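Target chain:
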Amino acid sequence: TRGWGDLHLKPRDAAKLGYLWLNDGVWDGKQVVSSAWVQDAVEPLSKTGAGEDDHGYGWWISGEEYIAWGRGGQSVRVVPSLNAIVVTTGAGFEYDQIAPYLVAALTKGGERLPANPAGVAQLEETVAAIGQPAQPEPTGPLPETARAISGKVYRFDPNPIGLESLSIDFDGPAQAMLHIKLQENAETRDWPVGLDGKYRLSSEGRALRGHWTDAETFAFEIFDIGQEFHQVRFTDDRIEFSSPTLGVKFEGRQQNP
């Protein structure tokens, strides 16, 4: 059964989904989802035997709350006892890291928090900074390796991530084009890569940027929901692909060198 959290929902829409369940299927005074269905959906139909992380109709049930899990830390949590919905859309963190702060805030009841003007000012400053578009960074000349390997196709033997081939076009100092083909897919994916510190968005919704760490090694990061860090090192007609994110390292060879 596919979980609600696997769906691609905007934060506000995800919160609406949680609100609908919290209110027994009622929205704006109208019963839009059957109350019986809402209640059945959060009954533990598939049990783990541990008393938590049971599964209903697309919801994970854990104690008094039920959760829609998604990729990269996305989640919708409904806690009826606190009349609360918690939506997380970030990545690169564990929910348990922020849970103590959320629980402390939610269980305060009607108690007002003490004034914290310095904290409010810092929050407003941070939000304003985040809202500003990133400025491109100065770019220097590309290393000689970039010209030598540009457009060359490198093929890999079977590997843990199913990467069949890779090539990179370096047509200018600000942007490159990464071409990858996976063994499970006949199509080659073409992803632009920013070389000036700014992400470039692919047609698939992934954002990429990269840089040369030395004369032979190109590192790039992919931002989808979370971040992935990879690097490729070129030596003669060989390539070494490594990824601290995925914990893999393997080699390939240039096609028809």
Remarks:
- Confidence is low (pLDDT under 50) at residues 1-7.
- The radius of gyration is 24 Å.
